[in-house]
Amino acid sequence: MEPKHQKIALACVVLASVVGLLVVMNRKSVEDDVSDLPPIDDPPPPAQSQAPPVPEAGKVVDEGAAKKDTPKTSNTNKKKGGNGDRSEKLRLTKILEESDKEGKKLFKAGKYIEAADAFGKAIEASRQISGLEKQLVTLLNNRSAMYEKAGMVDLALEDCASVLELEVAHEKARKKRARIFESLMEFKKALTELCAIQLDFMHKNKASLMRGIPLNPPVEQKKMEDLCEACLPAATRDAEQMRDEWQKKRVKEGKNHSLPAKHTVGMLMESFSSCSVWRSEAEADLDLGALALELARDVAGAERADLLFRRGRRNAFEAKYDDAFADFRLAEDLAEKESLQGEMKSYPQLLEWLGVCKHLSYDLTGAIVAYEKCIEATDKNDSNKQAELRVKCAGIKMDAGEIEVADGWFTKALEINPDFPDALLHRSNLYMLKRDLESAKKDIEKCLKVKPDFLAAQLRQATLAMHLDQPDQALSCLELADTLCPKNSDVQVYRGELFFTMGKVDEALKCFEKGMEYDPSNPNAYVNAALAIMNIPAVVGSPPDTGRACDLLEKGLEIDPQFQGAYIHLGQLKLTLAKDIEECVPVIDLYKEGLCQCRTKDEMADLLKMLIMAEAQYDAAKLLGMTTMG
């Protein structure tokens, strides 16, 4: 497990967990494109007419009873006679079999349209004979294969539809539809067809699957993954449009600045060594009530803008980030409106806070502009602040996915101060994203040599040790971190993650529970606790406590609506627990809710895969006429 602030690498594992058992789509040989007819039973001989019963001596015959005992003949036999009906069936059967044989011959010769015509004659004959539904299905499927090979996909789809009306789970027809839809770039429909094959396979083999008996399912996992990937571009466009409409609605409601969770903002603040400086300044300043009274006085101009800044900083100190950022924006508006930049005492600090505010609101362009202005307004001799501002610019570029540009900003920061701990800490994260673990390790070691009490660096070193498969080293880092900052929620969460990777799930859960106790606003503690619970049976031999796991995941999302991993895990769990097909709908809605909180395509990717698969499986279940998940 990894905390939310790190990259959640789900990739194919995500797909496998939702899809359950993914299936194999074997490449078919030419001979497999048409199927042999099931045997046709010979028509029975015509029923022999029976003479009326001969009365016994001394008895009178009941004519009504005699009529009841005489077998009835069908209307057809009455019109044509028994021999005529049998003869007609034999004639039609001969047409059917000869046409089928001719169709296969033409197919092998590559004459697909002529073969389709031959199968068409066989289809017409089969429709005139009762009880040949299986043969009709085979013939329709064979003709659809000819239409597909001839490029007449509309007719092929029509025949497939006719097959599925008679046999809803017909595997060849559904695979054919999947191929055709994929060729038409209708990837979602193709995926749905394969999901239908998968669901039917799982339904028919439920008992064996429950017993863990290995089976050879009919569609390949990679095929499912490839189709899901093919769905992503269109799904991403739809998701971005949905998110933009949701955000416009929030703007109308006065909720236009969506910030991460309080805990996430706090962690970002604490990853900069200057955090203790501004906190001390804010704590030494007037409290919020006193600052409000000052602002209530008849103050204007630069004095008022500085008071707004001070109140914003105090709000940030008290973790009231929405109020803090509202004050910073008011100060910015006043300074720009009245050109107070040169008169304000706190203008450079205001610019820096505006950069933080806009970065967290994901206004990346506005954030970089604010930081660049701050660089110009800050004393050039203040090397630490100059370096810190460049590190913050690098962070924006990392979030924008511009890794090389971000690296350039780190280089500039370290040119100003080669031992600047903030630059070393945050550049180590960049190296981890680039999978350059050795360079990340060197930066962290140097950072801790310069600033041994840097908690964020200790936690990063523990994470790096986990990636390097050095659990003892990671544990040592976390023990030191616990000494530096006792009863710290993040230290407990990291320790729990380490125990989880070591297979010590019970100990991991205890750590996550301490994390919730030490800081009830830490969403990572709740989500990771839920995952631990899902790996611990409530009682030996019984299933995990899924109810508590659901509650914890929902609590994690309540604390942090931008926690994409929590949407994925909660959706998976709810799908696992669903008994009725319609219980899939709230899960689909949950994924869409999560997508509205995403800021980038990268954030959307894993959640979109879950949504695509959930919708495809729901649609597939509907195609099959399923009403339950069992």
From TrEMBL:
TPR repeats mapped onto the chain: 421-454, 489-522
BP-aspect Gene Ontology terms: protein import into mitochondrial matrix; protein insertion into mitochondrial inner membrane
Subcellular location: Mitochondrion outer membrane
Entry GO CC: mitochondrial outer membrane
Gene3D superfamilies: Tetratricopeptide repeat domain (1.25.40.10)
Basic and acidic residues bias locations: 59-71
One Gene Ontology molecular-function label: mitochondrion targeting sequence binding
Record bears the keyword Ion transport: no
Residue spans of biased composition, Pro residues class: 40-55
Record InterPro entries: TPR-like_helical_dom_sf (IPR011990), TPR_rpt (IPR019734)
Membrane topology qualifier: Single-pass membrane protein
Keyword terms: Membrane, Mitochondrion, Mitochondrion outer membrane, Repeat, TPR repeat, Transmembrane, Transmembrane helix
Lipid biosynthesis listed as a keyword: no
Region (Disordered): 32-90
Similarity remark: Belongs to the Tom70 family.
Name of the protein: Mitochondrial import receptor subunit TOM70
